[in-house]
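So, could you explain the following?
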Amino acid sequence: MVRLGEVLRDSGHRVVFATTKDWSQRLKSLGFGVELMTEETDGVAGDSADANAESANDLLDNSTPLEKALKSMTIMLKEFLPLIEKDEPSLKRIINAVKPDVIISDHVLTLPSIAGSGIPWIFSYSSNPLSLDFGYEDKRLPPSILGLSINSDKNLWEEYRQQLKDARKDDWIKYKDWLISNGCPLIPEELQFWSPSPFANIYMFPKELDYTDVRPLPKTFHRFDCMKRSGNEDTFELPDKLKNRSGKLIYLSLGSMGSADV
């Protein structure tokens, strides 16, 4: 989202982030407008990376990929639904105050305040495109978050897919009822987390690794190879024990969740 903001900012647009206190200082330092999701101004901002790592701890155990996936299905709605319920009044307040021309939402659930705002909005997704199946399912691909290859046993795909849906069924019904009670014009498909935007949906993934040859996406979906934000003044010094070694240094990042498992 920061990189998208930089491109828009550098093109002369006003960019405002609706965010929590732990992101506000960094976003302001990059020249963005910030609207806090709560009106509290006291206290010390925390670190969002620490919060992400802590939330991943429940899944960092020795259970099987399927067991972890089923557990994550219940965690997602149980944890996220109370958060968006709490944030909805703030989002509506911010949208009414800022009056944006376009809203970009990077969230795994449909938000009534955005989908029902009457303002064009873009759904932004920052995960493996297999997990677009949480909102746009295509059975030509294996179910997501299990680490399954496109060449894996297709006889098991539907069995796993149904298990993942069954694991979130009860919480999804509560989620659906909440969306309806808040007048949301878009209700996700049965047992799905989000609805694609009718305007535009963007995601990041290298073309060579994408699945569009197996499952072409609708014209409202747009892929970017990468979204690399501008660097800061930090420099990297090669450790002494590596300086005199031959070959090249390869830097590998496992992302916010993988890197949380030290």
The domain at 1-242 is CATH 3.40.50 (Rossmann fold). The chain has a mean pLDDT of 87.
